[in-house]
Structure formats: structure tokens, C-alpha cells
Amino acid sequence: MIQKIALLVFVLSFGVQADIAVIVNPANANVVSADDLNRLFLGRASSFADGSKATPLNLSEGQVARDEFDSKVLNRSSAQLKAYWSKLVFTGKGTPPKEMADDAAVKAAVAADPNAIGYISSGSVDGTVKVVTTF
């Protein structure tokens, strides 16, 4: 009985930690590394490796996928990122990525814009976008 409960807890906890899929438009042929993501989503870069413009898209605050992206990819908490962007906006040195309401909004925006890059829960991926990496 205890083994069954332990297995159930393991399976349920695994399901809660969904993978994050970083997505681009299917026409985008760029390879995107974790370092590229860090620079794009922190405003330190504005283009892909081939020189084409990159438009990063964030999920809105409070979304589970956003919290995971912030911690796994940007290595910062939501509070740290809020402070980071507040400072850059105040000094006129940066603008944070546009925020989208949910996975469907990010996916639709990326599918419609060859320059867009975003992230969604891997379970939301379909043929309208291309996955460049997962976390």
C-alpha cells in the first residue's frame, strides 16, 4: 500500500513540473542556446544569430510556465526580474518583453511573426510553431 501511494505521489509531482518549450515561427531557422535566451529575455540582445530581429514574448506574471522559465532559464526569481526591469525602464536603458495572457496567446503571436520567440508549456505545442529547445 505504501509503495502504491509513493508511486502515485511521484507520478503526480512529475505531472505538475511541466517542461517548458521555447518556440519560434516555423520559418525561423536559427539555433537558440540557453545563453541566447538569457540575453534576449534580459534585453541584452535584440537579434538572432543570423542578425534578424528577435521579438521575445513573455507569459504574464503568475503563470506557472513563466515562473519555471524565469528560474530555469534566466536563473532569477520573478521578484528579481521585476526589480531588474524596473531599473532598466526607469533609466531608459531597456523595455521588458511584451507579456501575453497565456500559452495560446504566445503560440498565436509566434505563429504569426517570424521574428517572435516565446515559451509555453510543452503540452501546448502544436504544428503552428517550432520548438527550438525545452527545459
Automatic annotation (TrEMBL):
Annotated SUPFAM superfamilies: Periplasmic binding protein-like II
UniProtKB keywords: Signal
Domain of life: Bacteria
Signal peptide range: 1-18
Protein name per UniProt: Phosphate ABC transporter substrate-binding protein
